[in-house]
Amino acid sequence: MHALGRAAPCCSQCRARVAARPIARRLRQRAAAGGGSNNDFAVFRFTLGIPGFDDNDVPRVAGSVAAVLLAVNHVLSQSPVPAAQVRSEELGLLLALAAFFTPTLGKRLEEAARSGRRAAAVLPGSANTMRISEDEADATRRELAWATFAMLRNVNAAAVVIWGANGELLAARGQLPAAVAAGGVTLEEAVAQAAASEALGEAALAGPSYLPDAGAIGKAGAGGLALLPEGAQALWACPMKGRQGGGDAGRLLLVAAEPRAFSQKERAWAAAVAAKLGDVLQ
After folding, report:
1. What pLDDT, in 10s, does the model give residues 9-39?
2. 26 within 8 A of 20, measured Cβ to Cβ
3. Helices (H), ranges, 157-263
4. DSSP H or E run through 256
5. Which pTM does this prediction carry?
6. Model confidence over 114-151: pLDDT tens digits?
């Protein structure tokens, strides 16, 4: 009797553990399905709401106001100015200068962080494509392969297309329309259409043509080109004229999945690559 009495609590504890296992298993599955967290977070950004004023310039305005106040305080101070006040004004001036140049420094750091980063977004209706013209010499094909790879690696581009002076396809790499990749419309036909367009052909003859967002793409009449993926948000086309001038050797086209994707530094670097290809192709 005593043995049975002692065994009862043990059995009840075992039943409790067995009953708790399915609950723990469901909690683990729910956590895994929710990315390891059941919490929802919202990020709020407070702005001044002043029309035409960029909130990123607040440090610059604050630094300018602080510098003016320091100058006024120095002029109105008794002469000679105490050494402690001079030291305080010097420190205040340094802080004002730091605040003034903070927005510029932030932009440079953002550009440096973006340099070498591929566009993370995937263009809808696109498929990864890789094509190098077999009509070119091996040395030229190596240059084209390097250029397309370097663009996707070092510029915020989702696709790179290069065509010759007569609109012939030279190289294509990255996210291009799935219909083109599947052969619904040949890539050569799509490139010829883009080369004949005013937005990417004639407009980019004198110099690089930059369409920074979908609105600019539509306004230029490039939105309906078969070469562009459905979600293309920015385009940059550059003539390949060579570093020593020379004739028109074709175009280099960059397609981005984000608006205003190409910084000034990236466009300058891509233009240098286009000039190098111009020397190779001429």
Report:
1. 445 454 545 444 555 555 455 545 444 444 4
2. no
3. 178-181, 187-196, 214-219
4. strand 251-256
5. 0.58
6. 554 544 467 887 888 899 999 999 999 999 999 999 99
